[in-house]
Specification:
The protein is mainly α and 227 residues long. It has 2 domains: 177 residues, no CATH class; 47 residues, no CATH class. 78% of the residues lie in helices and 0% in strands. The chain contains 13 helices and no strands. Helix 8 packs parallel to helix 10. The longest helix is centred in the first third of the chain and has 31 residues.
């Protein structure tokens, strides 16, 4: 991997690093306050790697929730990754031993980068996808571990930390808008999301919105590519 490729990847994942470290620290603090140490934080981040589910998981573990409840919650929260995976089938085809990890490491932010950016010159696509996914995973593990260690010595207030995820998503959206000439998918995404939010409510809008978006983008793929 060339020095220029490394620089490009680091710059592209810099906003993710900022958001993941902040969110990870918040999660680490919350996990530690629930009675779990840094070892638990690292293991959970390595084998779960789902920010939203990990935040919810702390409450489930603290309340002694059943395996069935945890499974249902996990499926409901992470169902959107099914649609992400459908969009990445072509990109991940032929990736060999990297493929299982690439599938496991899909997150909202990683998906956004891989779908909106070009592969650095001279770098194999699958190596690029793997590098971005692994770096983002490392950022998350680091943030969670730091948060747990910080709370071991200091008891901190968590109010407002959860907004970091919203801020991160907004920054990625703005960056994509500025870097892409084609704005149809972005406008469609915002419109469909708002409509589904009004129709289905805050608790039920996500899956219908994702389903409609995937169908619309697949149906209009040729039209979007032409523009």
């Amino acid at each position: 991997m060339s020095r220029e490729a490394v620089k490009t990847i680091l710059l592209r994942t810099l906003p993710i690093m900022t958001g993941y470290v902040v969110l990870g620290i918040g999660f680490g603090i919350m996990l530690n306050q629930a009675g779990y140490g840094v070892g638990w934080a690292i293991l959970m981040c390595i084998f779960v790697f789902s920010g939203t589910m990990q935040y919810v998981g702390v409450g489930l573990m603290a309340s002694g929730a059943s395996i069935l409840t945890t499974l249902v919650m996990s499926l409901a929260i992470n169902a959107r990754y099914l649609f992400y995976g459908l969009s990445l089938i072509d990109k991940y085809r032929g990736s060999g031993w990297k493929k299982p990890y690439l599938i496991f490491a899909i997150t909202d932010e990683t998906f956004a980068i891989l779908c909106s950016s070009t592969v650095p010159h001279g770098m194999k696509p699958h190596n690029y996808y793997f590098s971005v996914s692994l770096l983002n995973h490392i950022y998350w593990i680091f943030g969670c571990a730091v948060g747990t260690m910080i709370n071991t010595g200091f008891k901190l207030e968590l109010k407002g930390v959860d907004f970091a995820l919203t801020a991160l998503i907004i920054s990625i959206f703005v960056d994509q808008w500025k870097s892409c000439k084609q704005h149809i998918p972005a406008v469609l995404g915002v419109t469909v999301t708002i409509v589904c939010l009004c129709v289905f409510g805050r608790k039920n809008f996500l899956l219908p919105a994702l389903l409609i978006l995937v169908m619309a983008l697949l149906a209009g793929r040729r039209l979007i590519d032409e523009h």
